[in-house]
Design goal:
Four copies of one chain form a homotetramer. Chain A contains six helices and seven strands. Chain A is α/β, with parallel strands linked by helices. Chain A has one domain (8-226): Rossmann fold (3-Layer(aba) Sandwich). Chain A has a seven-stranded parallel beta sheet, with helices on both faces. In chain A, helix 6 links the parallel strand 6 and strand 7. The radius of gyration of chain A is 17 Å and the shape is globular. The two termini of chain A are 32 Å apart. Chain A binds chain B through residues 62, 94-95, 97, 99, 102-103, 106-107, 110-111, 114-115, 117-118, 121-122, 125, 139, 142-149, 151-168, and chain B through 62, 94-95, 97, 99, 102-103, 106-107, 110-111, 114-115, 117-118, 121-122, 125, 139, 142-149, 151-168.
Chain lengths: 233, 233, 233, 233
């Protein structure tokens, strides 16, 4: 197994089961973990469990994102790894969608990713090292009926990730986009008892994130799609 | 040649050579044409030339888009065809990008497309007929270095177009996305004299838009990429 | 409407409704049409109807393809337009597929396309003009369960078409690949009476082939997907 | 790290550095390894090194592939993992390509993959477990000028892999396609001394193959693209 040189990770958009799984997996691999979400209170227990630290941050607000990185830097040093998991969606018949909600989808799912990536890259470039992982969804590559806002946000995030991969891979920064094509199991959303692995297990997803971080730079993936074995595709 | 039943077209984002070519081509095919841009003054000459009408509208403002459709309806009846050409881009080294400009890229290139499409679909659904054409770019399908904001906006617009095609094709509304992969020739941007067709001619692009409008619904395209014969791809 | 300079067309793989529709549409646009299929007898009536000529040719046999072009050249002059529609498929549970049938799928659907394109390009290059159209299917871009052989043949044909577009567009030869995503209506396969256009009408497909031939070379499409308005995608 | 239940692997098309790296990596992960190539003599040293066994097999010949699996079964038991790396290419100006070489490209790069997969699946289905890994190339997803035969073969192999993933994932068989987008370093092909990791290291690629084998089935990837950090894409 290749040695991994990353020491500190920031996970943005904590709350879902995936972020908790990433926090545990990254911690298990020897990294210090910072957790960020709009309400830091939600993160307290997880931060304590993994020995990390929680930060309150609205990722769509430039000043808050700048402050987040300054605070993390003061606490841990600049993060080697940043995972952007935040997203927001509204859905329903297209003609009934609330434009304000559509704008929020774009802001949380895509613009927040830009703000976080920009602060991250500023600190990774001088060291010519680092990794930025974006969490995508089925909607990143396929626009579904009655779900244009999520497609808009997730397509945009993928465009961001691809541009960053082209711009910064040659600078030593690994940019990857993981397309989660299926439902993630969680406390409130479990698969049928007779098909326990028919939904994506957050720990299984986190394993692939870690695999990506361990790829030697002579053979980097910029995008990986994950789906349950039984998922139609 | 199949008979085309569309009678009225709205072109949003006029200014570039493409919108003028669309206005002339659509007029030549027997449609009444409405032109919309932030500054209607810029459109006066073109509107006069094609016997159409110019409207001032900032496509990122919900109230202005709603008023635009009310005004067109009063003047021409609701548009059968809507072409969304507006876009905005900022580029340069990623770490130097101004977040306000990035937000504007998303708003003009994608959110404006949502607002315009929503008003258009509201009026097309009851008639079970109409066409919405979105103008894409190379950046719609490929995120380039130093150009993340344009990729974000154009990827998002493509996600919107695909969602709408899935939701509304079965309702009789033809939604199409045209990827313009190369530079469009214009007064200020001409190809070398010895290679007169090495840049996209706006009239040639407009011809394909009209071809799309004439496709019988048993064989619709939802996406077409266009590039000059000499363009590397 | 742009003037089209093509005068002679060869359609390979005649038999399906599409080839007959292409023959009629191309003839209607002023082209002389040559028809080729394994059994020329099947083509006699169509050739007579359109004032063209039928040729017997097994497109998977190099000598037969070479002779086909020599014969057409003697009769009409070299074809300006070549449409390759031949394909062969076998399907069923993967473990039960007959390897000989799988090989035939590759040979008819892809290798024949290579042989025909090679003879066509040899004659188009000196004139720096011509068009080669390949007919694809849903299976060109999506490998379905129980249908690996068709996917293998159609994916391969698409790879051929894309390579040729890259190699020969800058030489003035328009190479295009049309993905037919859905069932084509024919004498033996008709849509429900209440949904007359829920299957692809061959004439509607042929209209798009002609649109492609009329595209000015400053704005060429290399691939277009067509599907019925009601088709799920 | 998830426990991996695979015990035996077959690598077809040994010769390149990648197959040797796979042999060492799979052996290191506790698997018994069978190696197959047209000339088994070439594999003797590698087989000895990894404690595996070499088999002579022309993968384009049905009878030889059937015998290969019978022989492996007798020696090791049926393989849990099969990696298909064989390919053949011819390139040059399209009009100068030798059709016999083009046919060989299709046969080795794609048809051999079919034959090997069919024998593999026959043995995996009853156990509802196994993995089939196909090695792709840049040409799997992009048809380059002067390289149509390789694109045809590699596109076809990808179509096969995708069909198999759709058909057999729900049966518990993990089918994956790895796109190697760049040059692989080997004894005869090394990167510049000042850029030691500017070509794909076979061991780095093999690490990702092993990562794929270790993915829990609730989160499987069916395709991963790998390229060196400095590779243009």
């Amino acid at each position: 197994m290749a040695e991994m040189s990353y020491r500190t990770a920031l996970i943005v958009g904590v709350g879902a089961g995936l972020s908790a799984a990433l926090a545990r997996t990254f911690t298990g691999a020897g990294m210090k973990v910072a957790l960020a979400a709009r309400r830091a209170a939600n993160l307290a227990a997880l931060a304590k469990e993994v020995g990390g630290k929680a930060f309150a941050c609205d990722a769509t607000k430039r000043a808050e994102v700048e402050k987040l990185f300054v605070d993390i830097e003061a606490h841990f040093g600049a993060p080697d790894v940043v995972a952007y998991n935040a997203s927001y969606r509204t859905r329903g018949p297209f003609v009934e969608l609330d434009p304000a909600e559509v704008e929020k989808s774009l802001m949380v799912s895509a613009f927040g990713g830009f703000l976080v990536a920009q602060e991250a890259v500023k600190r990774m470039l001088p060291r010519a090292q680092g990794a930025i992982l974006f969490t995508g969804a089925s909607a990143s590559v396929k626009g579904y009926a009655q779900s244009a806002p999520f497609a808009m946000g997730k397509f945009a995030l993928r465009g961001l990730a691809q541009s960053l991969a082209r711009e910064f891979s040659p600078q030593g920064i690994h940019v990857a986009h993981v397309v989660i094509d299926g439902g993630i199991r969680s406390a409130g959303r479990t698969p049928p008892a007779d098909k326990p692995d028919s939904m994506l297990d957050p720990d299984a997803i986190a394993q692939t994130y870690l695999d990506i971080l361990r790829q030697p730079r002579s053979a980097w993936a910029w995008e990986i799609e994950l789906r349950p074995w039984v998922e139609r595709f």
